[in-house]
Structure to design on (208 residues):
């Protein structure tokens, strides 16, 4: 059971203070470690960022757009072990050495009965994958889409209200169907705007 998974917990000064179950981590609001990997690609000179569509059956943030692949680091895992999330969620084999580290970004989201205080180890992957390469763990992820990185940036810096995304989602019959729509910020997992801005600036340093 995911709620029983054991995670390392940290105090507000980021000192390791022990281990707790995932359920308690989010109920009490302990700082804990996560692994984030953002796929970007360059197609005909245009940079794109890839997003996953979270399954509508997810307990947290169902049916919202999120990091390409991400997950909690369990108590016995290192940051390098985080690459398993990429394979598990979206079916792409990536070696840790292929990732570009963007450092640790911490953020906190507080909702009714749910406090998410993450120390996110954030990585970038320069992808040459096409949509046909992705095999989704449908309990977790129900689609993969891409957006122009410039649009994604302008959305979070308040210069655009909507951006276009395109890709595919898995319908209730388990079939891939094309997904193309305009979305606003409320279609995304509510990480703090500051988190998105810091992330975008770090990616811009890499993609020029």
């Amino acid at each position: 059971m995911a709620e029983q998974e054991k995670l390392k917990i940290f105090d507000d000064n980021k000192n390791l203070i022990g281990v707790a179950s995932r359920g308690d981590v989010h109920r009490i609001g302990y700082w804990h470690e996560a692994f984030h990997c953002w796929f970007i690609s360059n197609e005909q000179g245009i940079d794109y960022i890839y997003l996953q569509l979270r399954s509508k059956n997810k307990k947290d943030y169902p049916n919202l757009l999120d990091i390409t692949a991400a997950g909690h680091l369990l108590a016995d895992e290192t940051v390098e072990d985080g690459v398993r999330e990429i394979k598990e969620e979206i079916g792409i084999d990536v070696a840790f050495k292929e990732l570009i580290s963007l450092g640790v970004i911490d953020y906190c989201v507080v909702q009714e009965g749910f406090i998410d205080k993450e120390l996110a180890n954030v990585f970038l992957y320069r992808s040459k994958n096409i949509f046909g390469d992705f095999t989704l763990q449908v309990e977790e992820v129900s689609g993969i889409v891409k957006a122009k990185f410039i649009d994604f940036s302008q959305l979070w810096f308040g210069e655009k209200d909507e951006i276009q995304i395109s890709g595919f989602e898995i319908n209730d019959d388990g079939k891939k169907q094309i997904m193309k729509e305009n979305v606003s910020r409320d279609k995304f997992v509510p990480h703090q705007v500051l988190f998105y801005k810091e992330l975008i600036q770090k990616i811009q340093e890499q993609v020029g």
Notes: Helices lie at 22-29, 83-90, 149-156, 193-207. The chain has a mean pLDDT of 94. Residues 2-207 form a domain with the Nucleoside Triphosphate Pyrophosphohydrolase fold (CATH 3.90.79.10).
